[in-house]
Amino acid sequence: MYYTRETMNFPRSASPSVSQASPDLVENQRQSSSGEFSRLEKRIGAKKITFHSKSMPRGSMFHDHEALRNSKDKRYDLFRTMSGKLERQISNLRGKPIDTSLQDKEITESLTAERFLDALQGPELETLKEKETIVLPEDKTWPFLLRFPITSFGMCLGVSSQAIMWKTLATTKTEKFLHLTQVVNHVLWWISLVLLISFSITYLFKTIFFFEAVRREFKHPIRVNFFFAPLISILFLALGIPHSITTSLPSMLWYFFMAPILLLEMKIYGQWMSGGQRRLSKVANPTNHLSIVGNFAGALLGASLGLKEGPMFFFSVGLAYYLVLFVTLYQRLPTNETLPKELHPVFFLFVAAPAVASMAWTKISTSFDIGSRIAYFISLFLYFSLVVRINFFRGFKFSLAWWAYTFPMTAVATATVKYSEEVTGLATQILSVLLSGAATLTVLGVLVLTLVHAFVQRDLFPNDFAIAISAEQPKQKKWLKQFINGSRGDSMRGLKVLDPKDSQIDIEAPPLSNAVCHTV
Fold first, then answer.
1. What is the DSSP letter of 473?
2. Contacts made by residues 130-135, CB under 8 angstroms, sequence distance 24+
3. What is the pLDDT of residues 33-73, one digit of tens each?
4. Pairwise CA distance, residues 372 & 384, whole Å
5. Strand partners, 497
6. What does the pLDDT look like over 328-355, one tens digit per residue?
7. What 8-state DSSP symbol labels residue 496?
8. Opening angle at CA 442, ends 160 and 245, nearest 5
9. What are the pLDDT digits (tens) for 359-372?
C-alpha cells in the first residue's frame, strides 16, 4: 500500500472546541498538513509507510519501575541483611504496609541441630529429604552469594598443604636425590594466597548482604566445622611460605593467628560439653577433626617460630579433644545421626589430626621421638586402612568440600618425609615418594573435577538447599498426627528421663498396661 496525499490520515478539526463559524482556521490546518506531506514525498518518494498510533500510558516509567521491583522474589529477603527492614520502612512511608509475619518468623526463629538432621540427608547433610520444603524458589538459580558455601575454603586447605609438602621435599636432605627446587612451592603458595584472599572477600560480601545465610551455616552441624578452614589455611600459608620471600616470621603474628581459633574453639567445645541439642554425642562427625587440626597446626607454627608455652597449650587441648572425638566417632552411638554408614572421602579427616600432631610434637621436642612416632604410626595405619577401599570415590556427588579431604593425604606424606629424615633408609625414601605422589595425583584429580564442574557442567555452585530449610517441620496428615500423638501419649505413662535442656524424651521402659504388680 502506497500512501498519497488523498489517502493519508492527518488530524482533522474534529474537536468540539472548534466552531462552525471558523472555516478559515480549518482550511489553514488542511493546507499546512498537505504542505508537510509534499515536502516528505519529495525527499523519500512514494514508499510503503506504515504508521502505528498508540497512546502513551500515564506514568509509564513509574509502572516499569513497579514491574521490575515486583519481579524480584520476596523470598530472598529472608536472607538479606537489611533489605527486609528497609523495604518495610519504605512501604510504610508510602502507605502500603507489607505483611512480614513469615519473614520475621523465619529470621528470628532459632534452627536447632535436630531440625537440620530431620530435614537433610547425606554424609555432608547437603541433600533435602523428600518430605521437606525450602523457603527459597527451587526452580530458579539463586544469587551467587547465596550459592557460595563455607566449604569452598576446603580448596585453600588442599592447595596450601601441597605448598608445605613441596617445600619439605625440596629442603629435606634425604630427598636430595629427587633434585627438586622450591619453584613448585613458590607457585603453589601464591595460588593458595590468591584463593584465600578471593574466597575471603567473597564470603565477606555474603556476610554483609546475606547474614542470615551465614548464620544458618554456623548452625549447621557439619558446616560449622568449616569455619576453621580459612583460619587453618592462614597457618598453612605461614608454614609453607617460600624461603625466597622470608626465612622467619615475627612471633607476634602467631598470637594474631591463634586468637580467632581460640575464640571459635571455646564456642564449639563449650557446646560439646554443655549438652543439649549440640552435644558431641549428637553432632559428632568426621568434619569435627578440622577444629582439632587447628590446635596442632597452631602448635606446629608456634614451635617453628621459637615459642614454647603457647604451642604446648594448644597441643594439649588438641590432644585431649582428639581422644574424646576419636572414641565418640568409633562408638557410633545410637544418638549420632550424622556419621555416614557408607564409605565417603570425609573419612580421610581421621588421618589429618595425628599426622599434623606428629609434626607439631617433633618441633616442640626438637626430635622425632616416641611421641611423634606414635602419632605418625596411628595416622599411617588409618591412611592405609582407608586407601585399600577400591570403591571409595564412587557413587557420591562431587562438591568443593572434597578439597578438605585431600589435605589429610598431604599431611601424612609430609609427616613421612619428616620421618624419613629421622629414620634414614631406602624403604622410608620410597614410602615418602609414593605417598607424596599419591597426594599430588589426588589433588590433580580433584582439580580436574573442579574444572569440569565449573566450565563444562556449570554446576560447581548449585543452589544450597542446606541453608534454605524451613524453620518449621512440614505439616503432617491428620491421621498420621493422631497416630503419633496417641503413641506419644501411651509412652508418657512409662518411665522416662527428662533433660531440661533437651526437648527430646528418652524412653527407658515400655508402658505398663493391664499389669498387676506383686510385691515380695
1. P
2. 131/474, 132/469, 132/470, 132/474, 133/470, 133/474, 134/465, 134/468, 134/469, 134/470, 135/75, 135/78, 135/106, 135/468, 135/469, 135/470
3. 455 545 545 544 544 444 444 444 444 444 444 333 433 66
4. 19
5. 506
6. 888 765 555 555 555 577 888 999 999 9
7. E
8. 20
9. 999 999 999 999 99
